[in-house]
Amino acid sequence: MVAKKGSKRSAKKETLKPISPESGKAKKKMTKAEREFERQRQERIELAKKFTKKILDKYGPWIKSVIVWGSTVRGEFKKKSDLDFVILVDDTRDKLTDAQRVEMDDWIYDTGRKLDERIASQPVWTITEFVKMVRAFTPLAYELMKDGMPTYDTGFFLTHKRLLEMGEIAATPEASQRRWGDVPRRISRAKSAKLWLIAEDLYLAMIGAEEAVLMYMGRDIPHPMHAAGDMKKYLVEPGLIDSKYADYLDDVVKFRKAVEHREIKDVESSKIDPYIEKAEAFVAEMEKILRELEVRRKRSDIQRAYEVMIKASVAALKAVNKLPQDPKELPRAFKKHLTEPKLVNPFYEDVLDGVLFMRQKMNEKKVEDVSERYIALTTEYVRRFVGEVRRLYNDLGVNFEEATKRVDQEQVPDVNVKIAEKKEALAYKASAKKGDKEEEEEMQRKLAAAGQSKDKEIKKEEVKEHTSAR
């Protein structure tokens, strides 16, 4: 696993560049606080470079990218904030065994902690795993491509990052947001433009608004000729919108065609205004639908995360014969019989709390208060928890698939317990009322650390000793 001496890396190095809101502006005298922040930022950059060099000296030929992400890259770090890393390794040239991977994870973790206690590196990702996550557009891959900045890259990571920025990776909420971006500007510009510009901008604003909604729903973008038809099929017929808005779209499409073909050469303001009013009403209604779809999606994602997490928790507690009769006791049993004896990573206590908090908000009809980012990250770690439970069953010599089939046939318990407010889970508008974002950074630290103790798995004998009372 150690890189051979003298081996050459024909890779493109990327230095972590300063991220400054004043970039491109005339320099102004910094305050004392700003100078201290800049000093800490430079210190973090140098620390990232040193850590990267140590990784490359040890495992150079395997490394595809070393990436910094989280509060350091966003410029939101505090003095004690973690310096979060993800390392991508090449598993296509040689097979990376589980033993090699554990050895690599342990060395990287220990080296980082010796260099600085704030360095938090996740277990390595193979590029095969990364590409699969990109194709599935998983929350972690999205967060990494969106916020990550490589300190070393062979061109692999930056290519994916740039494709995301260009909106070329799937028809995603990211692409939907980008598509929506021009809509208000086009409406505003239409009010003071010439005839052809009015027709074009009204048309593009309405088409763009419809496309943004359809993209969010996972539908293909229709050809403009079929825009009204697809709107009726996917929005009017299911009862999401009144049919008059499809007529508004059809009217403006015809108006634009007439202007394009010079059938209309000049139109009085009194005759243009109705088209502008229709476009404004159309865009307002589509924005309302987009918000409603976001809420529906949040509710669906939260409910699914709850069901999977609770079923997996039930399965884990059944495996050690510690499932409580009262569902309200499940969180306490989870801690006492799973995390305290370290049968599963203690981090998953936070994941369970997060799932219960999201469901609590959903039941209070305040799902809009929960950020999409928190839902996405929590959902990803629920998926990982299922893997932890599978490992526990394997250590006990019990068939995981058979056990989960039995759990799936049972009704999901209603774990109705009061969870204290989690600031890191709140959307910006809700969390802004609460003050600092330190809890969000704490969430990032825990997410990064989630895999660390996982490398030191409980031996079968210890598990069996703990469950010998069965």
In short:
The protein is mainly α and 470 residues long.
How is the secondary structure organized here?
Layout lengths: L31 H28 L3 E7 L1 H4 L8 E7 L8 H18 L3 E3 L3 E2 H10 L2 H9 L1 E5 L2 H10 L7 H8 L2 H8 L4 H22 L10 H10 L6 H18 L8 H51 L10 H10 L7 H17 L8 H25 L3 H9 L19 H5 L5 H12 L10 H7 L4
Parallel strand pairs: 2-3, 2-4
Antiparallel strand pairs: 1-2, 1-5
Helix and strand composition category: mainly alpha
Strand content: 5-15%
How many DSSP H or I helices? 19
Could you state the order of secondary-structure elements as H and E? Answer: HEHEHEEHHEHHHHHHHHHHHHHH
What's the overall geometry?
Answer: globular
Described by strand count, sense and barrel closure, the largest sheet is: 5 strands, mixed
Instruction: State the end-to-end CA separation.
Output: 42 Å
Fraction of residues in helix: 55-70%
Mean of all residue-level pLDDT scores: 80
Computed CA radius of gyration, to the nearest angstrom: 27 Å
Number of domains: 3
Question: What can you tell me about this protein's structure?
Answer:
With 470 residues, this protein is mostly helical. The chain folds into three domains: 32-170, Beta Polymerase, domain 2; 177-267, no CATH class; 300-466, no CATH class. Helices cover 60% and strands 5% of the residues. It contains 19 helices and five strands. The protein has helices spanning 32-59, 71-74, 98-115, 127-136, 139-147, 156-165, 173-180, 183-190, 195-216, 227-236, 243-260, 269-319, 330-339, 347-363, 372-396, 400-408, 428-432, 438-449, 460-466; strands at residues 63-69, 83-89, 119-121, 125-126, 149-153. Strands 1, 2, 3, 4 and 5 form a five-stranded mixed sheet that branches. Strand 2, helix 3 and strand 3 (119-121) form a beta-alpha-beta unit. Helix 12 (269-319) packs across helix 13 (330-339). The radius of gyration is 27 Å and the shape is globular.
